[in-house]
Structure formats: structure tokens, C-alpha cells
Write a structure and sequence with these properties.
Length: 304
């Protein structure tokens, strides 16, 4: 799947659908004098804005490596997800504040059939958009598209809350204000989740132990002697990953043979995992411990 094309398509579909939904939901919210439904409408519009960021991020991330950025521009997608989270946090605070003011004034909403139909339809459409974004995000390994999917999911959940409030509004006058506050909290939590994921990726995280085991198995399939693989460092640039690792070879082996083995391992890792690998060779010496004792195992630093 072409990552850039898929990202563009997901962004454009989101922009068109969310803009249409915003207009319908805002009309229903104004008609019902509902802070929760109006807030839900603006949340939907924020999805369009975040999708614009996704399109921009995909465009920037697709740029080739240059002198100033030798590892490419893939991390623009992580930066874009932080922008989306910042937008969500602002909207969450505003909704929560308005809900509290509405509760203090004891304002009640007047939901009608239009609000019920619009809200129920919004739940279905937004969850469908979320599933679509999650699918594209998984297929293209795009954090910004996945973050946009969570934005769609929170909008669907907030519409579910509004839908429940519509059925309870006749019994509880304060339900609209309460739902507005709940939606604000939900948006705030979504923003926190996106920020935590984005910052972790930018700062670096430990790679999956299973990946290290599979890479080690691939290396040993090329050269089945005891390589003593260690010091794994994986750097994630979204568009591609780079790996450095150390192996140990017989100290009496020629430089040419050691170089040939390292290149074969690098090629195997690239073909198997689509990771650009750099293998450093160290001499394998006899252990200094007593005869029969295993050589002390060097720790494998695993950094992403």
C-alpha cells in the first residue's frame, strides 16, 4: 500500500465527511439549545482540522533525506500527532468550562427528533471513519493517521453520550451539562494518550524483545557459528528504521571474510524486516574464566 497516497485519501475522506457532519450537528445543537450537542459538533469540526494536519504531515514525511536531515523527514508524523493532541486539549478545556457554566445557570436542553436522528447517525459514521483510519494507520505504519483515528473514536463516543442524554433529558434537567463535562474529560484523555505516544516515539523506547530475537535468528541463519550478538540499537524514523548491532567472529578470520559475513547479515535483515542494518565486528577471544566456564555475556542495550 502506497503510504503517501493512502494518507492523502484518509485525510480527504475525513475532511469531507466531518465538515458535512459539523454543519448538521451544529444545526441540531442550536435547535435544541444543547451545549453537549453543540460541543459535539465543534469536536467534529476539529476532526477536519486534524485531518488537514495529517495530509500536511504525510506530505512532509514523504520528502527524501537531504543534507540537513540525513535520516529523512518521517518524524513529522509524530510532530503532527502532537499538534492534533494540542488541538484536542484546547477544545476539551473549552467544553468542560462551558458545561460547568451551564450547570451553574441551571440551563436545560430541549432535545427533539432531529437531535436524536442526527446524533445516532453521527455515532455510526464516526466509528466507521475511526475503523478506516485505524486500518490505514496499521497498513502504512502512520502515527498521524492512527492519531486521527482516535480523534474519530472520541467523537463517536461523545455522540454516544449525547444520545444517552437525549433519552434521559426529560428526567434530569442537568444531563446536558453533565454530558458536556464528560465529553470534555474524554477529549482531554485522548489528548494525553496521543501526547504520551508521540513523545515516547520521539524520545526513544525499548524495542520489542520478540523483534530482537527474530533479528538474531536471521543473523544466525546466515552464519551459524556463535556470533555473540549484542548492543542492538534500533532508530525509528517512521519512513524507515536503522539498526546497529555488534557480532563476534574468530579473531584469526581475515578482514575480507568478516566483512563478507557482516554484509550478508545486513542484507538478510533488510530483506526480512525492511530495516537498514549496520554490523560492527568484534574479535571473539577465549574466555579468561576457568576452563569449561561460559564467557560472561555482554548486555544487549536495546534502544529505539
Amino acid at each position: 500500500m502506497d503510504k503517501q497516497k493512502a494518507g492523502y485519501t484518509a485525510g480527504i475522506v475525513s475532511i469531507l465527511v466531518n465538515t458535512a457532519l459539523f454543519g448538521v450537528k451544529l444545526w441540531a445543537g442550536i435547535s435544541a439549545d444543547s451545549v453537549a450537542l453543540s460541543a459535539d459538533a465543534w469536536h467534529t469540526l476539529s476532526d477536519s482540522l486534524s485531518s488537514l494536519m495529517v495530509v500536511a504531515a504525510v506530505k512532509l514525511a514523504a520528502r527524501k533525506a537531504d543534507k540537513e536531515h540525513p535520516f529523512g523527514h518521517g518524524r513529522w508524523e509524530h510532530i503532527s500527532s502532537l499538534f492534533i493532541a494540542f488541538l484536542l486539549a484546547i477544545i476539551a478545556f473549552d467544553f468542560f468550562k462551558n458545561a460547568l457554566q451551564r450547570f451553574q445557570m441551571k440551563d436545560a436542553a430541549g432535545f427533539g427528533t432531529a437531535a436524536l436522528v442526527v446524533t445516532a447517525s453521527s455515532v455510526l459514521v464516526k466509528e466507521a471513519l475511526a475503523q478506516y483510519a485505524f486500518f490505514i494507520g496499521r497498513k502504512t505504519n502512520s502515527p498521524s493517521v492512527s492519531a486521527d483515528g482516535w480523534h474519530h473514536r472520541t467523537d463517536a463516543l461523545s455522540s454516544v453520550a449525547v444520545l444517552g442524554g437525549i433519552f434521559l433529558s426529560e428526567r434530569f434537567w442537568w444531563i446536558d451539562s453533565a454530558l458536556g463535562a464528560v465529553i470534555g474529560v474524554m477529549l482531554g484523555f485522548a489528548a494525553y494518550t496521543i501526547v504520551r505516544t508521540g513523545v515516547t516515539k520521539l524520545l526513544g523506547e525499548e524495542p520489542d524483545a520478540d523483534l530482537i530475537d527474530r533479528i538474531s535468528a536471521t543473523a544466525r541463519s546466515v552464519y551459524n557459528d556463535d556470533l555473540r550478538l549484542h548492543h542492538f540499537h534500533i532508530h525509528n524514523y517512521v519512513a524507515h528504521k536503522e539498526l546497529t548491532l555488534h557480532i563476534r567472529l574468530n579473531k584469526d578470520m581475515t578482514i575480507e571474510n568478516g566483512h563478507r559475513i557482516a554484509k550478508r547479515i545486513e542484507r538478510a535483515i533488510r530483506e526480512e524486516f525492511d530495516i537498514i542494518a549496520t554490523v560492527r565486528i568484534e574479535p571473539l577471544r577465549k574466555p579468561r574464566a576457568k576452563a569449561g566456564a561460559p564467557e560472561p555475556c555482554e548486555s544487549a542495550d536495546r534502544v529505539l
